[in-house]
Amino acid sequence: NMIQTGEIINILNSETVGQAPKTMTIKKIIVKTKGEYPQSVAIDFMNKNIDKLAQFKIGDIVDVNVDLRSREYNNKWYSNIIGYGIQSGAEAVQSSDQLPDSNDLPF
Asked: Is this structure's pTM higher than 0.70?
């Protein structure tokens, strides 16, 4: 289990994959990470976890709980980042201009 923090830069439409009766619905969000070398990371939310995205919009800073999954098919490996939880990361992100000025303190 890992947490990926960043800004939502895109929310893609849901898509249904597979063939009945084994279908699943996937919705991707694209999160831009912070740091010296920011990356745009596609994170898949599946089936019932898609509902967890309802309150978020492009521009929101979020912490996403993710798992990495890989599988082999015809001697090639494929990897996905699977999101299973998401919460607002705005409380954890504070810039220096949001910190109280020492001149504003009552003592």
From this structure: yes
